[in-house]
Amino acid sequence: MLYTDIVMDHFSNPRNVGEIKDADGVGEVGNIQCGDIMKIYIKVENDVITDCKFKTFGCGSAIASSSVTTEMVIGKTIEEALELTNKDVVQQLGGLPSVKVHCSVLAEDALKVAIYDYAEKTGKEYKGLEGFEPSQLSHEH
Amino acid sequence: MYINNEIGTIQPVKEIGAIAREHNIVFHTDAVQALGNVSIDVEELNIDLLSVSAHKIYGPKGIGALYIRRGVKIIPFIDGGAQERKKRAGTENIPAIVGFAKACEIAERDLQAHVEKLSKLRDELIDKILGSIDEVKLNGPRDNRHPGNVNVAFKYIEGEALLLMLDAVGVAASSGSACTTGALEPSHVLMSIGLGHEIAHGSLRLTIGDFTEPEDIDFIVENLVRIVKTLRAMSPLYNA
Known about the structure:
The complex is a heterodimer.
Chain A: H1 5-12, E1 25-31, E2 36-45, E3 48-57, H2 60-73, H3 78-82, H4 86-92, H5 101-122
Antiparallel strand pairs in A: 1-2, 2-3
Helix pairs in contact in A: 1-2, 2-5, 4-5
Chain B: H1 13-22, E1 28-30, E2 49-53, E3 64-68, H2 83-86, H3 94-132, E4 136-138, E5 149-154, H4 159-168, E6 174-175, H5 188-192, H6 197-201, E7 203-207, H7 214-234
Parallel strand pairs in B: 1-2
Antiparallel strand pairs in B: 2-3, 4-5, 5-7, 6-7
Helix pairs in contact in B: 3-7, 4-7
């Protein structure tokens, strides 16, 4: 599997690994059958994501996708973070092999689920969450 | 298959061959992993057809052989010239054939020493891995195993990540993970022996060869301990 230097850097030195004990939102996606489980934690203050951490069971690109996603969303407002797509993740990583693109989709979805969790807990509504339903996510390959 | 390539199990080929013979069934065995690692006597083992490959015994890559018992008819899979008694058309690759023959000669001469050296290192590697890492499982049998095959499953981590980190320190290995190849399912062998997805994804195969030294074993174990710890710290499935 040929990965870019950026992917290898994020895989070898992942940023923001861990849990946030008093997280404001947590999102977990993926399943063991596919071999990828991604969990993203967010901390929110005044609608800005002030901290983001991850834990991932998965291959090199799954770990790199999680790592780069946490880096990209810290400091963003919730609405800005909701605009992040898997294409942004792939681009930021300098590309992913085509069979690994689903890892970036997992990262986008895990973040969305974490924000959804935050919105549910706080009763807030966000434009970027309209029509989004975590139970409808499909992570079959 | 005489010896399973993933988990090293030596199959009861003689017994299977006897059953086949009793029922008049032509018996073929894939002995690619067996060549040079166990003695192969087609008479004793009731084998009619047997496939082997040179690269497994340090011979040239790109050459193999099919043993065909006298009287067994096969349909040629390459038509054309009359080479190899019309069983396989095309000019023979003489340098590779000669290289394969020489490799067989050496493998037979060194069989005992080779098996003794490898199984000692294999057992040491298995013992050290099982002894220094928690929640790890040996896949395949402890005895009756390919002398150079080690296959272990580390819970809570995924095989490709493990391979990348081993590669970074110069260790080439393979895994049962689907992610390694982009396939949909993890190793069918690991799934068939009843392992769950979680174990199959976290399986690692290490192969010991004639050029492996005792210090290599310590190097691998040392790095495995570190890598498994790093990856488990990242895993949402692991609660330290």
